[in-house]
Every structure is written in C-alpha cells, then in structure tokens.
Write a structure and sequence with these properties.
35% of the residues lie in helices and 15% in strands. The protein has 81 residues and is of the alpha+beta class. The chain is rod-shaped.
Length: 81
Amino acid sequence: MIRVDFYEAIGLYLSFLIIVSLLYFVLVEGRNTSKKKMSIDERHLWQCAICMHAYVDLKEEVFSNCPRCGSINQKDGDILS
C-alpha cells in the first residue's frame, strides 16, 4: 500500500482541481470567446468636427462630447463649441 501524508493528499487534490479547471477554461471557454463578434450601430458612431477623432457614444442624444478634445458635436457634424 502507498502511504500518503495528509498534507500531500490535500496538495495532490488541489493540484488536480486546478489542472482540470485550467483545461476546461482553455478547451471550452477559450473557444467560445473567439466566436463572439461585436457590431456597432451607425447611430452610435461619432466623429469630432475639430480633432477628427472617431468615437462611440452609446447614448442616443443629438449632442455628444468628444473624449479627446472635449468639444460638443451635433449628430450632423456641426460644431457647437
């Protein structure tokens, strides 16, 4: 019979659980994340009239602040300040 210390048994058990968890993540979850695609509606895409920075603003408003220069843009592209 093989004698195993209590702490060795706990260490082997935890090592086994970690290895199984990592294999599950790599084989199952890793494959699923690569299939996710993100699409953005055109009404959320903005371009600043001053610095020409393209950005996404998910709020459905007529005006949006540019994250780069801080100017206020209108949806048709006119600059307010």
